[in-house]
Amino acid sequence: MAASSADRDYAHLTFGALGASTDTLFIENMYPLEWDSTSLSADINDVAPDIMDADFLVLQFGDNAAFPDNADELSALYDAISSNVTSSTEVFVTSTYWRTQETDALIYQKSSALGAEFIFLGDIFLTQKAKDFPVFDHPGVNIHPKDHQMAEISKRIVDRHEAARDIDLLEGIEFSGTKGVLDQGYLTSTGVSGFKISFEGAESSATNALSIYEVTVDGEIINARILASDSKAAEGTSIEVTDMTAANKIGFFIVKGGASIEDEFVFTRNGTSSVRGAVYDGEIYHSFASRLNADGIEHVVTAHTEKGFMMGFEDTRGGGDRDFQDAVIYIEDFALF
Ligand SMILES: [Ca+2]
Ligand SMILES: [Ca+2]
Predict the structure, then answer these.
(1) Does residue 192 share a domain with residue 142?
(2) Cα(173) to centroid of ligand 2, in Å?
(3) Which of 15, 27, 35, 305 has a CA positioned 20 to 30 A from the CA of residue 162?
(4) 3-27 pLDDT, tens per residue?
(5) Is residue 1 part of a domain?
(6) Domain range holding 222?
(7) First to last CA, the chain
(8) Residue 215 Cα to ligand 2 middle (Å)
């Protein structure tokens, strides 16, 4: 950590944003336990009373753990802490900062088992060079999160705290939580591995095709493909998606009225599309950015759940009943993107 002063580290910023006194803030640097469990029991015993008393707990481990060599140590660390967490504590677990996918997959599992909110940080360091402050001579220190990145980490924790914790999408019931895609930075392909999309129950008078595309680093939308021509009919099934180009971002869209998996959708940067060469004038709603939607509003909600990364779509122009339950999918193994 390399904030310019203690009050600019993310712990102090988060406590300030929550209106909590920093007198009640307890910070413990436990990084040696990420690779060495020798003193695990004794060290956990030392902090156990503070963990058990905490109203708000943030766990950030993994950047110092080699994978797979230290997977057992990292796993044991989470388990030891988890055994001291009570149900009255609001728990947040962050990904690695320097984005280690296999480690993140393990952390995500531990986070789910703990019932914690998982917060992805792995895209923040990519912005670091452009917003470096302060600058340190030592390169090892310099790559740690500094003031701007600390503020971003804190913002993500506070935003998640304020977002609805339990997402329950119900037919015809307006969804009142946070809309849009959480952790879009996580929806990025490494090109080395696929992921699985499961279709869940959804209710709508319309048939909705569920579809995916990639967004290149230059912002071009490419490789759009229909995954299910009728997401309702696909309920209970899943599909594997592979062969995405590394570093491309991933967006989903629904085509109201359905579409054939043989249809070819071509998007321009502003989201207009053509199908089989003709301009498509039906309704399409995108997860990637609300500006791509004809009505300019969000048509998707997302949440990290035990079943994977959930995504729910609203299929009515202008929002309709805003139940975001007109096409629902879970993205599994997304930690391996
Ligand atoms: Ca709806
Ligand atoms: Ca609905």
Answers:
(1) no
(2) 8
(3) 27
(4) 888 889 999 999 888 888 888 899 9
(5) no
(6) 184-336
(7) 26
(8) 28
